[in-house]
Specification:
Layout: H1 2-12, H2 14-27, H3 30-47, E1 58-63, H4 65-70, H5 78-90, E2 95-101, H6 110-123, E3 127-135, E4 155-156, E5 164-165, E6 167-169, H7 173-176, E7 180-183, E8 196-198, E9 200-203, E10 206-209, H8 211-219, E11 228-230, E12 234-237, E13 244-247, E14 253-255, E15 271-273, H9 274-286, E16 302-307, E17 315-318, E18 321-325, H10 327-338, E19 344-345, H11 348-367, H12 372-397, E20 399-400, H13 404-424, H14 426-439, H15 442-451, E21 458-471, H16 474-480, H17 483-503, E22 506-512, E23 515-520, H18 529-553, E24 567-582, E25 587-592, H19 594-605, E26 613-616, H20 617-626, E27 631-640, E28 648-656, H21 662-679, H22 683-694, H23 710-723, E29 734-735
Parallel strand pairs: 1-15, 1-16, 2-3, 2-16, 3-7, 4-11, 5-9, 19-20, 24-26, 27-29
Antiparallel strand pairs: 3-6, 8-14, 9-10, 11-12, 12-13, 17-18, 21-23, 21-24, 22-23, 24-25, 26-28, 27-28
Helix pairs in contact: 1-11, 2-11, 2-13, 3-12, 5-6, 5-9, 8-10, 11-13, 12-13, 17-18, 18-20, 21-22, 22-23
């Protein structure tokens, strides 16, 4: 026996070195790294079954569909946010952390009222932290008081390696004067999931705290000058009982120990809706209604505020969820620090040297001279033991021991050893092969495997045209109509819209309150899907005009606002994933992808341009390919939508060619010439043309439900640019700072 393992070791001493060396090289590739991330996600999901409930000091508030539908649509007037801050301070919350980018100033009193509410909260002891974000594109930062936010100075190490950019979206002046802010940048891994976040951000040659770090500094009342940073080691926050130590990498990144998501079967962060928090605090503290329920207990807590309105949600995949509010990333980071629950990486030298000696040479000594059955069984047990070690270390101590690379090295080694043993036992192999061949045909096996595959979630990538529509000012209808009448009105409207969509061979995806989401080009291929989508939008607007006339003719049956109902529609054409998506037991046929989100941006952004049907250049081009001249389009310029880096040409769908009047065509021609003058910086020429096109607009201000049109929008923009001449880098592209 002793001679056997000595012989095996003498013959195979090189095999573990080669296999584990190759596995180490493979582990550094993108594919292997993504697979390792997935194994860590699997361990994280399994750990949730056994972990303790979250620290009660972290609370989540979401501006979600219920709030959007029944209280105020997103984005709300910022006076609501001011009320929220002041109301939450009545519950004595320690910190309110807004994971919302509030950079652009708005007209009206909303900005000032939010700042006033924030100041009132601070006077009660509730401090506010607001999210910021870096930007690769130039961003206008309006001057104003610097406020309490300051850069970090005490940094040891190469600050040039810290994540950052030359530009940034920071809170509007009134808000940053009374609140702290931190960068919410959270770069995704190559598979789209956020697992590491930078706790330090470079901007304007200064280093600022991240949104999570600023929240912790605010909670612990730590000034920027007190923070000590050692890149590659830790961030230290001074506390009377001992410094708080947060481990970071050489680039200032932090590995998130992601424990809590949104699952009914595991204990997760207490989560409330924005509407629920506002109304309960109002009823209990402001109105003092005797029967009012007690508001959520927010005393001394960190209240994170996120936004998850469908079609506009700040959400995405997380280590524990396919589609979760991304505010949970920052909440988990803060929870890690509050509970001293940091994820730790096992040093690579320890992992690979231990795997080589224990599993590599151990398998050569113990298994190489055994039978194939024992060899395979021993290999399986060894791999299971290593997986159990990695799982246990993560479950109980949050130590991350890599699985993919070492297991690949061990598997390669065992494959080689098994192959060697099989060659040695050639006769037995041939007998097994002959026996197998006498029972089952290889072609039959392949056929059985193919036919026996279970249905999988997911879908296929195809070109479609995504369709989003929403009723203008829907909250007004909710206020004016009792629920049963509102349902009656919506049913009539949605029936007409759906009938038209289906008549043009579109597929209804879902209803979201008053919104209609549809797709053209799936599940059945429709070559002219973009043309059909454009025709649908115009037919829907014509049908809605007929409904308005009908409702007005019905007299007092409906309030006057019903006769002013208008719908905005957005279109985009591109390659999207369509198919069955959801859980393994319940799913829907739907669409997903960046081009779907862009269609939603067309619908939400149409208001900014005074349009009621807005589409992208890809939709216009696809429409023209299959129906040249069938639809009259009006170019509206180029924009960069929220979440994208490159500009998108947008158009208004004006009319079908046969319905376009001479006045419409002249209006479009004048506007298009005015747009060319505008981008060419001929402000005077552009103003004259926009004034002329404004007199020919189909939608004139003062008509029922009409407050703007594209000519008026560009008149305002042109006047503003003439008064404040842009720099040479201006190229006519408008950057949308909100979704």
């Amino acid at each position: 026996m002793r001679a056997s393992w000595i012989t095996a070791l003498r013959q195979l001493w090189w095999a573990p070195l080669v296999c584990y060396g190759a596995a180490w090289g493979l582990s550094r590739t993108r594919v292997a790294q993504e697979q390792e991330w997935r194994t860590l996600d699997w361990r994280t999901e399994y750990r949730a079954l056994f972990q303790s409930p979250p620290d009660p000091r972290v609370v989540i508030t979401l501006f979600e569909d219920d709030t959007d539908t029944n209280l105020v649509p997103w984005p709300p007037d910022r006076a609501w946010h001011g009320n929220f801050n002041e109301f939450v301070s009545l519950e004595r919350a320690a910190v309110i952390a807004w994971d919302v980018i509030l950079d652009a100033s708005r007209e009206g009193e909303g900005d000032a009222l939010m700042a006033a509410g924030t100041q009132a909260a601070a006077e009660r002891g509730t401090r506010v932290v607001v999210a910021a974000a870096t930007s690769s594109d130039p961003v206008e930062v309006r001057p104003g008081p610097p406020g309490p936010t300051e850069p970090l100075r005490g940094i040891a190490g190469d600050a040039g390696r810290i994540f950052g950019d030359a530009h940034a979206l920071i809170p509007f002046p009134e808000l940053r004067a009374v609140s702290r802010w931190g960068f919410a940048d959270a770069p995704r891994a190559s598979d789209g999931i956020i697992r590491e976040v930078p706790l330090l951000i470079r901007w304007r040659d200064e280093v600022y705290p991240s949104f999570a770090l600023q929240t912790l500094m605010t909670y612990y009342d730590v000034a920027p000058a007190q923070v000590k940073v050692r890149l590659g080691d830790a961030i230290e926050l001074p506390r009377p009982g001992g410094d708080i130590r947060i481990p970071i990498s050489e680039t200032g990144s932090y590995l998130v120990n992601y424990r809590f998501d949104q699952h009914e079967w595991t204990g997760d962060f207490p989560t409330y809706s924005y509407r629920q928090v506002l109304l309960r605090i109002n009823d209990f503290h402001v109105e003092r209604r005797p029967d009012a329920p007690r508001p959520p207990d927010l005393g001394g807590r960190i209240v994170f505020v996120g936004q998850t309105v469908t079609g506009k949600a700040d959400a995405g995949p997380t280590p524990r969820g396919a589609y979760s509010p991304l505010v949970l990333i920052h909440a988990n980071v803060v929870h890690n620090v509050l509970t001293d629950d940091h994820a730790r990486r096992m040093p690579a030298a320890v992992v690979w040297l231990g795997a080589l000696l224990v599993f590599g040479y151990g398998s050569v000594i113990v298994l190489a001279h055994r039978s194939v059955t024992l060899l395979c069984g021993g290999a399986v047990l060894a791999m299971a033991g290593y997986v159990a070690l990695g799982l246990g270390a993560w479950l109980w101590q949050s130590w991350w021991i890599p699985l993919t690379g070492p297991l690949a090295g061990f598997a390669a080694l065992e494959f080689f050893i098994v192959g060697r043993r099989i060659v040695q036992e050639q006769r037995a192999k041939q007998e097994i092969k002959g026996m197998f061949g006498s029972y089952v045909s290889p072609d039959l096996v392949e056929q059985m495997v193919k036919s026996g595959q279970r249905p999988q979630l997911g879908g296929q990538t195809v070109e479609i045209t995504a369709y989003f529509s929403d009723i203008q000012g829907f909250s007004t209808f909710s206020e004016k109509l009792p629920p049963e009448r509102l349902v009656e009105l919506m049913n009539e409207y949605l029936t007409v819209c759906t009938d038209i969509v289906q008549a043009e061979r579109g597929t209804l995806d879902k209803y979201i309150g008053d919104a209609v989401v549809a797709m053209f080009g799936a599940p059945l291929a429709v070559p002219d899907h973009a043309l059909r989508a454009c025709v649908t939008t115009l037919r829907v607007q014509a049908a809605l005009a007929g409904l308005r006339a009908k409702w007005v003719a019905e007299g007092d049956r409906w309030p006057a606002v019903v006769g002013q109902m208008r719908s905005r529609i957005g279109l985009n054409t591109g390659r999207c994933v369509v198919g069955n998506m959801g859980s393994r037991t319940r799913f829907n046929y739907t669409m997903m992808g960046d081009d779907v989100n862009l269609a939603a941006r067309m619908e939400s952004g149409a208001k900014s341009w005074g349009a009621y049907i807005m589409c992208t250049e890809s939709t216009r081009e696809a429409c023209e390919r299959h129906g040249p001249g069938r639809v009259l389009f009006r170019p509206l310029g180029r924009i960069v939508v929220k979440g994208r880096a490159h500009p998108t040409m947008i158009h208004e769908v004006v009319a079908l060619a046969e319905d376009a009047t001479d006045e419409m065509r002249e209006c479009v021609a004048l506007f298009e010439e005015g747009l060319a003058r505008y981008t060419g910086r001929d402000w005077g020429g552009a103003l004259g043309l926009f004034q002329r096109s404004g007199g020919l607009e189909p939608h004139q201000r003062g008509m029922p439900g009409i407050s703007n049109n594209p000519s008026l929008v560009y008149l305002h923009l042109t006047e503003s640019l003439r008064a404040h001449e842009p720099g040479p880098e201006w190229d006519g592209v408008f950057v949308m700072s909100e979704k």
